Amino acid sequence: MRRIEIAGVSMHKQTIYNSSRHPANQLKLQIAPFLLWLLSASCFPYSNQIQNDRDRVLEQFPDASRSYELDGSNHYMRTGEGQDLLVFVHGSPGAWDSFAGFLTDPDLVRRARMISVDRPGFGKSTPGVPEPSLLKQAQRIRQAILKEKGSGRVILIGHSFGGPLIAKLAMLDPGEYRALIFVAASVDPELEVVHWYQNAADLRAVRLILPEDLDVTNREILPLKQELIELLPWWQKIQCDVSVIQGLDDTLVPPGNADFLKAHLPQARIVTVPGLNHFVPWARPDLIKTEILARLNQK
Predict the structure, then answer these.
(1) How wide is the angle at C-alpha 139 spanned by C-alphas 136 and 142, nearest 5°?
(2) What is the mean predicted confidence (pLDDT) over 37-51?
């Protein structure tokens, strides 16, 4: 019986073979690629940073009135006191604290009011209950925008899954937004590929063992390709300024998404960065801040 060493853990080949034949273990082996894919998308390398940023928001802005729940199910966090409004929309999985570092940035706090939403299914917005429709998600985010919008300009920032959502918002209300900032955004339907293990993870037996956030993530990503196809006729409605930030080493959202945005939004400013991965809000927040300030400084 040959001994196998994997990542410092020694196992016996015969033991592995026998245990793998158990039906429950076979199921786990089948969905292992999916779990690894989701974990790579869940920002776990930056979990400590996200927690620290979240704690800083709650310490700096302890007033509970800065945390809002519309209709008891549509939650977002607000900071800043400026006239213009910045709206941050997170990816999948995620929550409002994906952008917590921006909510305490002194330059941004002075210049604008900021809201960071919990998208449906995440955080305090109907947790565990996904909303596969981009239209319905956008309508819920729009409720928060209408509540917070004053006489100033509104700038939308969307990371990953948040990208098609800020596009949908701009398609619903052309002329209402000063600028859109797409960050590693999943927008090209041709580049959306559904893998077999994503379909396997949608089976009820598998969903029972998935963490809630990962289950919501899979259930909203599975229909995304068709949702993006339905957006195709509407891109010409977006006439506002656009910035696109894309890492060229992004293994989760192909860099070709930036080419898609450039083709459909010729006014877009494209920022591509060699060596940068998918996690731009934590790896290179300066890139996003630079684009925000550039738009705020425009008359």
Answers:
(1) 155
(2) 68
Assign 104 to helix, strand or coil.
Answer: coil
Angle at 87 between CA 85 and CA 92, to 5 degrees: 175
The architecture of the domain spanning 16-297 is: 3-Layer(aba) Sandwich (3.40)
Bridge partners (DSSP) listed for residue 68: 76
**Pair 227, 134: CB distance under 8 Å:** yes
Sheet holding 269-273, edge to edge: 67-70, 74-79, 112-117, 84-89, 154-159, 179-183, 241-247, 269-273
Average pLDDT in the chain: 85
Tally the residues of the chain: 299
Domain-by-domain residue ranges, the chain?
Answer: 16-297
Is there a contact between 123 and 96 (Cβ–Cβ < 8 Å)?
A: yes
pLDDT at 184 over 80: yes
pLDDT, residue 24, reads 44
Least confident among 92-106, 205-219, 236-250: 205-219
**CA separation for the pair 276, 291 (Å, rounded):** 17
